[in-house]
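Supplementary notes for students who missed Thursday's class. We covered one full example, reproduced here. Read the sequence, then the structure, then the short commentary at the end.
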Amino acid sequence: MGAVFSRMEVKKIRRRVRTWHRGRAERGAAPRGHRAFGWTDDGIIADGREKALIIKAVEDLLAGKSQGTVLREWLEKGVKTPQGNDWSRASLRKMLMNPRLCGWRMIKGEIIEVDGKPVVGEWEPIITPEQSQAIRALYEARLGKAVTSAGVVGTLARDHREHKHLLSGILRCGRILPDGTMCGARLRVVNNRKQGTYRYYCKDKTQGGCGRLSRRGEKLDEFISEAVLAKLEERSVRRRKKVQPWPGQQELEQWEEAMQELRDRFRKRRISNSFYFDEVERLETDINRLRTERQRYLLTAEQAATDLSDIRRRWYSETDEDRLDLAQKRTYIRECFSAVIVHPAGKGHGSRGTFDPDLIEPVWREG
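Structure (token representation):
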């Protein structure tokens, strides 16, 4: 009997602790425990240096920079976690996806809501809710996506690893095979260390290519860069004008109001348990679907609002802090092209100084 009563008392204590934490969260009180990156020890006031690092990381990621590049920059600057450890991919991702950055309260992965609206905490926010949702959409869009012949499926195709050349995995072999079909294999890169140059080439037959096409890398990079810059400069003003409020906001609010009304009726014991849980499951499915659509739309809006007026200067800038890194350039290229087909130039022409742009066939994306 003593053991039974002890277990009952432990359950009561756990329930009281959960209720206490939940109450603090619904009041917007700052979480307790270790200091969170971005704030001082009190958890209320933002730390100036760490706040600037977070803001720049968010802006860079939304502009197309890879997480690996951001992580490398932090490690080079000696940025540490609040516990004094080096940042890893997992810890950086977890920190940037935390809605606490925009002032929202969360417990065990759940954003606390009151009357269908996120609870705003008492601490100083570092980024906007729109930026926070865009970052979450960016990371969630990477889950379960596969690389196809047209690029990565998702809002924007982004790199998961660091590339050393601008067009790796984007160029396609355009040589026509004996059966009348196009080779279509991805071009690889080979470096000539003695001359300090590199070439894009088609892999041999044993690896799925034809092995009969090669082209100077610097010429291709320059041509595609100019084509992308011209397209982005043309789109910049038009894209910003097209961004409108998310069209599904009213529908989402209606479902959230229906969920709140259902909870109120259940709390007052006006509906049965079976009816309540069946309806909650149905409503949660629709609400989660709409919230995911909203996050993706906000991500697109954030990317469309990116200032492209000086993109040409940043593309060729000589300063590391100002210049677009390779991952950002590749993001813009993949946004413009599904692929770039390189047609054969004839024996020996691929290595000569002349360059024929008519043998390069960009496959543009719509929009």
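Commentary. Residues 273-304 form the longest helix (32 residues). The chain has three domains: 47-140, 147-239+309-364, 244-294. If anything here is unclear, bring it to office hours.
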